[in-house]
Every structure is written in structure tokens, then in C-alpha cells.
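seq:
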Amino acid sequence: CKNISSSFTGIFFSRKNKIHEDLIGGAVPTVFSYFSEVLAREKRGEHLSWLCMFWMIGGIYASAMAWAIIPHYGWSFSMGSAYQFHSWRVFVIVCALPCVSSVVALTFMPESPRFLLEVGKHDEAWMILKQIHDTNMRARGQPEKVFTVNRIKTPKQIDELIEIESDTGTWYRRCFVRIRTELYGIWLTFMRCFNYPVKDNTIKLTAVWFTLSFGYYGLSVWFPDVIKHLQSDEYASRVKHFRNEEVSHFVFNFTLENQVHSNGEYINDRFIMMKFKSVTFEDSLFKNCVFEDITSLNTYFRNCTFINTTFYNTDLEQYKFVDSELINCTFFHIRTGCQISFDDDYSAYWIYFVNFLGTLAVLPGNIVSALLMDRIGRLTMLGGSMVLSGISCFFLWFGTSESMMIGMLCLYNGLTISAWNSLDVITVELYPTDRRATGFGFLNALCKAAAVLGNLIFGSLVGITKAIPILLASTVLVCGGLVGLRLPDTRTQVLM
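struct:
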């Protein structure tokens, strides 16, 4: 695990949300489609926005746990020399707890009425619809209103689809036909998302989802990498250089950090219980030396010569000796695997704290969007939020320090969250029930593809230029916002 301490920090901070969403992407369309079926029209936008807020609460929880757990190396334990159960594994377990609790909660929730109709359970579907009606009427202050149904359009039952080819009576034949029929039905449902009357809406939603995801996730990667780049530049500016050292019969038992030693000679020296952090030895000679109980981070020996040197209980693996020559050297109890340590790495605490602040900044935007969703309308919030987010990108020109970049990150996240909430609500309301989850799932998958593309493009520009990421993100967000304003207003629309 070369350079695992610094690389893991950057990878987690910039890719954490992306990976997490990819893993549970299949559940998101189902959750929104399911929840929308039980909401009254007058409060549908507000309550769907509250649902979106719990997504961000989960993000805050994950960021807070990362900040509180991962940098604490003392929480780890070893199983042999090649396997360490580090604090980041504890973090993964802690993040799994909400998922487990959600599985338990699902057992107490009613089934979708439409699904019950499809499988022929009409009485159960009627009871759930009545329960939804009575709950909504009590919330409106009209508990005396009686639930009545004039007509129910029953979807074709799933079992009916395989009756044609069930004559053989063999279970594998029925199973094959059922799977084939289901896949064909999924394909037909997907293609109907591009049929009248939702074809134009699907095309516009595709543009909005793609641009918002590309700009948001692209800058989400770019922000932390730029902050880390600023930290690296500042850290590199404080490096200390030592040249032509001649040290003999000396015992090193202290920490060396951010140093470069060139053309040195170390004769009969002992390096005992030391920590090397970002230390490089170049063109140096080590003769009759002993390295014992050594922990290293970003430490390399380049073009060095080791003669009659002993290494005992160190993590100095072969890859740390770059173009070096080892003559009659002995290695005992070399620690292999991930020797990750955050104890002496303050930047790790800082990175996770910045991630926590960036995630926390979306909470006010979530609350505001939920309260105003049914008042100012979805389109105004979607277009306005994306345009303002695009304009806020230009403030990045002035981000020359860590604190300024953190401020820009919080501002950007706070503005874009309203666009995400309103886009989720609009997507749910524009599709009829028979293709809502499929349409939402397609757009969600497109969102992930745009996020991957944004990660690749923006990530490759870190440390090269600010102009391209700023102009690119601003352009796609503003254009996406203008397209979003062309969508139909769904505030008073009854779900089809």
C-alpha cells in the first residue's frame, strides 16, 4: 500500500459520496416512487423534499463518523504481520448500521397498492388505499370524509403473462418464461419513457440530470483535491535539505519529518524507535547500521548503498529502496501490508473536518427548499438554484487559501442542494405510476455516468489550471438550469 496514508485520505474525501451512491443507486428510484404514492398533492413537494434531506443527513452522519473514527489509528489491531484491522474498517461497520436498521424498518411498511393490484390482491390494495386516504384526511382536518372508489384500473397480472407457455408443466420452463417476460416488460416500460406524452420531458430531464451531476460531482472532486494541493505546496515549501552529512556511531531515536538528505555517509549508526515522515535519502551510504522499530510514511531511499546493515521490525519494504544497492544486508520481522497511521498526519484530521463542513452546509438549503417547494414552485427553485450555483463558481478565482476554498465549498454545496431536491420532485411528478421508477432509475443511472465523467475530467485538471474547471462547471450548470425552466410546472398536477 504505497503512500496509503495520503492517497486514502484524498480518495475517501473526493470519491466517498460517489461510491456510496453507486452502491445504493437501485434503491433511490424505488424510495421516491413508493413515497410519492402516499402523499397528498398539496404537501407532496414539501414531503419529498424532507425525504431528500434525510439523504443529506446520512451524508452528514458519514462525514462526521469519518472525521471522528478514521484518523484514530489507535483504534486498530493486527492479525499477523500482513493484516491490520484499521480504523477505516471500523468506519465501514458504523456506516452499515443505518442500512441494517432500514431493512428492519421496511418490514413495518405497507406494500405498494399498484403492486398488490398486479398480483391480484385487490382487497389488500383497497385497504392500503383507504389507510392512505384516512391519514391524509385527518391531516387536512376532515376525518369524517368517507373513502370511496368509483373505478380501479387493474394492471395485467404478472401470472397471466406466462399462461401461454405453461402447458409443459415443467418448473424450469415456467421459470424461464417468467424471467424472459419480466425482462421484456422492463424493456417495454423503459421504451415507453420515450413515448408520447413524456418523451419531451424525458429528453429535458436527461439534460438537466446530466449537467447538474457533471457540474456537482466534478467540482466535488476538484474542491478537496485543490485543498490538498494547496496543503502539499505549503508543506513542500517548508522542506529542509541536508547535504554531505557524515555521521558515525550515533543513535537516532527521534522523528524525522519533511526532510531531504543528500550525499550523506552514515557509519555504525543506529536508527531505533523512529518515525520517518516524508523523508528522502539520496545518493547516501549506510554502512554497519541498524534500523530497528521503524515506522515510515512517504519515505524513500533513492540511489543509496547499504552495506552490512540490519533491519529489524520495520516497514521498510522493497519499494522504498529506489535504485538502491543492498550488500550483505539482513531483514528480520518486516511489517508488510497497510501501515497506515494518522497520528502524526494533521492533514488527515483537517481533510475529514473539511468534508464534514461541506456536507453540513447543505442542511440549511435542504430546510429552505422543503419549506418553499410548494410555495415558489419546483421550476423556479430548480432553475434559480442551478444558475446561482453556476455564478458562484466564478468566486473560485479568488480561492488562494484553504479557508477561502472551504468557504466556497460550503456556498456551492448550499446552493446546489435546492436544485437536487426540486429535480427529484419534478422527476417523480412528471412520470405516470407505471413508468415512474423506471424513468427515475434511468435518469439516476445517467447521473452516475455523468459523475464518473466529471470525476475524470475535473480530477485531471487539479494543479494545472483553474480556468477550465470554473468555466466548464459554470457553463453546464447555467445551461442545465435554463433547460430546467422549460419543464412543465407540476405543482398542482395529480399523479398519473
